Protein: Argininosuccinate lyase
Amino acid sequence: AKGALWGARFADGPSTELAALSKSTQFDWQLYPYDIAGSKAHARALAAAGYLTAGEEERMRAALDELRARIDSGAFVALESDEDVHFALERGLVEIAGAELGGKLRAGRSRNDQIATLIRLYLIDHAATISHRVIQLIDAIAAQAEEAGEAAMPGRTHMQHAQPVLLAHHLLAHAWPLVRSLERIRDWRVRASASPYGGGALAGNGFGLDVALVARELGLDRPSENSLDATASRDVVAEFAFITAQLGIDLSRFAEDIIIWATKEFGFIRLHDAYSTGSSIMPQKKNPDIAELARGKAGRLIGNLTGLLATLKGLPLAYNRDLQEDKEPIFDSVTQLEVLLPAFTGMVTTLQFDTARMAELAPAGFSLATDVADWLVRDGVPFREAHEISGALVRFCEANGLELDEPSDEQYASVSARLRGEVRSALTVEGSLAARSSPGGTAPQRVAEQLAQLTHRVRDL
Ligand code: ARG
Structure:
């Protein structure tokens, strides 16, 4: 059969090979609610411009509602011969409303301005779902931070013991990137809320349609400024793909901590049975699969972004069929994230921390050496010299199998005349934590303030 939307100038219908290549209903079908919403808005604009009578608009809307109901119930489905969702839905509309009325809807619009609008509507909806789920994860992290109270743990740089920090401080360090991703979604939404509808194939429509009315009907803020740009650009899609990739990275970094913490060697956490998996051969295994899937899916989300960017690079104005390739990657990123986030949140909510073990390891690896140097500075020693004295003390302790607070007064003096027994008072984890009281620092008071700040920032979003 010849293509119903564009067959007239062709003597023959598309080859089966072309049809197989061209068909997109297997993935763009999920845009049908947005396609129907777009059609209703367009019908309103056609009526306002005098191209549909009030009665026709009424019947058109009823037919579109009927079409929606038939699709929802599975009574109307895509055929092999339907090139895309727009093509199929026009076929459905004509079936219900008749060719006379159904055939009027396409005036002044094209699949090019349609698809550019529908993908925005789809993403705005799913952005709301994703934001909601990210907020639930932030809440779960905040609840764990609150529960952790003043529990200490080893803070690391280069994976080596560095300085003690509060467990709550470390947990909240995984919440802030998520807050920024939420703020990114909020900012993106402003750019996404321009409506390409009425831009036609590329040049605009010739019927004086009220495109601002269409935008309003669709819940968008305003019509796009340039019809060529509106139908041909997909930076709004690429930016959302970046946001999902960054969220994947946010989760993946937290996941890596969880994977390491769950090892026998660390023994910092226990995963809940309902949020971990076993081995088919090793009966003792309890695996952090959710965290590993988060780490793995981050790669996939990054791939979807880079694939999409490669598709867009060098495309000339205006619409090109290459643009159909934007859908599968962005749909995949959205779907993956929507499945991952609830599982990840469940895992975080049910994590159990071995705070005794974490506290025991907090001062290990000479992680209070900076506090020795800081004590010397407060005693009037320039930091450069204090650093050397503290380093010499670490070397002395390592060679003699002692912790930093274990040498005798004579042994301290043998390392440096500036070192006195009083330094021991500075060598507690509590003292070290309390001393780091700069804004955003790990002192318990500061971490409590940070937690309150986080709650505020998320509430304001
Ligand atoms: N299925 C197409 C897409 O996803 C819709 C626009 C098709 N336009 C066209 N002139 N072939 O981009």
Remarks:
- The chain is about 60% helix and 5% strand.
- Residues 406 and 459 are 48 Å apart (CA to CA).
- The pocket of arginine is lined by residues 24, 28, 84, 111-112, 115, 321, 323-324 (CB under 6 Å).
